[in-house]
């Protein structure tokens, strides 16, 4: 960097020093560039030689300063207080610096994050990666919290490099990420949001990618990201270096390694595959206790009350359980901070909860398995697994949140009697031995009454309890290993009572399961037994079934279909008769009658029609029909009563004959005269009613006008404005038009005759005008 010369005789040395030959400056710049290039070449040569040396004497490598890495990375590690390396770092970093693919497996808390972050920085540094080169390294993490943690470690150790790094996770502004994505050299991302950017963000390219890191690969596959991960790998270039790390090596991880890695170097995989070699830290104490489902919350509350100076993580199987425990325990005030973390929270809330628990010395974190992988919570004393893990690998990851690095920790697993044998056998296959402990009755507190009181006082707590109940049973129902998780053996009513609920909520999937089991049981019944049950059902439904028909069915092999039972029901009269006609016809007929329909011969001459009909009915229906008929025939005869206009009732007369009525009135002329008299009478009634209505309308109009004048007068005296919302003790419920003025013409309106112009008549403004126009029209008529 050159500086401008300073004028004046008082600074001769500075003036002399600032004068440099341009050729000298160019030579010094070239020397610096050459020295930087030489240093990179030396580091590459040392890395190639270093890997073979470490294979021969691995115990000679202990500190990061002994690695063939750049000074910028060493300064960053020293600033972040990373001095000595762990076993996984000692074995994997030299191989990664050599440019080979790595398949790494190590126990939780062994420092896998630095095992791939140091090679990321060094690979880009040796490639002389710049801002215009685009994306050079990609790190994929299963959860947002783990991605944030990796990004923070990357910032702490890579501060002396000039690379740009970015974090791409769900829950953040997609637009802001798109604007900065094309300028990133190192990217830490979750699978879903990364694939979204690859498919939708214009300008985001990964053609120059040099290094791909898959952290917690087994968890990525378990969370349902297998298709997403396959799509991501199809976007990435094949000539790249890949580092795959996981605490457990499953079959799906090995399949992924065969697809994405080329001749990888396996580190720690043999130990992970060996059942006798445990991936549990040696300084971890493991315990389990056996309790019923309805005792879990009481024991958990008692444990928290007796460990108020500890840092505890409580794992549950569903988000709704986590929220229920958090809300209820907060209202019960245990005496220490409570925090909850689950996947239904917003991203900002999840990050704040993560930071809050990380910085706390004494706290309880209620969490789902979202916090079981990779997260580094410092100084965790206890890990409680309130609900049993789905498999041994999940157990390993859960208890791995404590006893990290060289610190000590304890784990406690809650098991029900139906889960004890199967879970212990599954853990034993992984070489995990767990010691059984018992709860002291003197220190156990029963909180069922407190939870019932909370559910009674606050409907929200009751609602959360219902959702927690359903979600737990659903989680047990969806578990794959039915030898451990037995839904039928769960005490549902007692569990609902322990949550404070008055009764067990109805669960749809359980009712479907019961119906399915019943259906399968019916299918497994023997054919003969099923036939007997059907015959009993038919006899119970229709006691008087014809014996001849049943004998015919037995002659035909005893096979009865649902159509036979349907058409035998007596409430299907039309269809059953038609069906019986069809099946009772003789099939074997002459050739001449091939198309002719044989009709049944209904001989009704020997007996009355009613007797023939009664013969086809059962005795019960015959008795019922006779009883109804008797009631109808013996019922007293009733007469029709009609009411006149005044409400007086009278007996209805029989309808008179029209001819007799005309003769009685004296012919057609008499009938017309009587009709005219009736019309004249009704016309007089209408005129009288019209006069009364007009008088009432005039009085109503005068009263409204008087009230309006009073309101105007009050408004003028008060100096206010008269509007549609003016309040007055004289106001009524009628409609008052707000469209009027307070001019001097109001006094002339009283003396003006009640005449309206044609325009006023055709355009009424208020209700009074409409009434007056209607009256005027009536007068014309």
Task: Estimate the helix proportion, in percent.
Answer: 40-55%
**CATH superfamily of the domain at 284-498, please?**
P-loop containing nucleotide triphosphate hydrolases
Query: What share of the residues does DSSP label as strand, in percent?
Result: 5-15%
Helix vs. strand class? alpha/beta
Q: Number of helical segments?
A: 32
Give the second-level CATH assignment, the architecture of the domain at 284-498: 3-Layer(aba) Sandwich
Strand order of the largest sheet: 3-4-2-5-6-1-7
* CATH classification class of the domain at 284-498: Alpha Beta
Mean pLDDT: 76
- Uncertain runs with pLDDT below 50, 5 residues or more? 1-33, 271-277, 544-557, 570-576, 585-600, 602-607, 720-765
The whole-angstrom Rg is: 47 Å
End-to-end CA span? 109 Å
CATH-derived topology of the domain at 284-498: Rossmann fold
Q: How many strand segments?
A: 16
Largest sheet: 7 strands, parallel
Shape: elongated
Protein name: ATP-dependent RNA helicase
Domain Helicase ATP-binding: 93-267
InterPro entries: DEAD/DEAH_box_helicase_dom, Helicase_ATP-bd, Helicase_C-like, P-loop_NTPase, RNA-helicase_DEAD-box_CS, RNA_helicase_DEAD_Q_motif, SPB4-like_CTE
GO biological process, one term: rRNA processing
